[in-house]
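so my prof wants the structure for this chain in the tokens format not the other one, which i didnt know existed until like an hour ago. anyway here's the sequence
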Amino acid sequence: MFAQVIQGRTSDPAGVRAALDRWVVELWPGSVGWLGGTSGITDDGTFIAVVRFESAEAAGLNAQRPEQGRWWEETSRLCDGEVDFRDSEDVTVELQGDPDRAGFVQVMQGRVTDADRAREVMAQIPADVMATYRPDVLGSVMVGHPDGAWTQVLYFTSESEAREGERKEPPRELQVAMEDIGKLSIGETTFLDLRQPQLLSPT
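here's what i got, hopefully its the right format
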């Protein structure tokens, strides 16, 4: 799987959302290997989209389409300044429910000293433990970047249930895992709250 993380700022949230809706209607039918995407805009105007494809080759073919180029040329005018693109084939999707039904999405970004070790720690958390502890979490997409950087997309049933879940005492297994991840982390983790997420998928 291949993912592209697109991030920037906009003063026209409505325009960006309309452009993404138009992509699904006009460009998706001819797209190559598109698996879906999640996008949104924070309260302070930060725009982020995480788009998934079957492979890097499929994403490259899609980018070469003339209609794709025209769409991005128009859409980029809605952004303030430069837009950052980060490509990755280090993509992990975990489902606990139906992310397309999420009412709230949170994107987390950070960096660790040892990405392989961090991946091992997270893999040791039993799926049933997480499902019982946080039933409000419908799924996640983890994208690895160079130098230990990462982007994680978390899908929640609603923001109110997500905030309530944050206040719960985590089980011991999760506490230990989070402590281990904390030891590997560099700097502060960034949280981007998407209160009006656009959940785009071929289905």
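also thought this was worth mentioning. Residues 23 and 122 are 35 Å apart (CA to CA).
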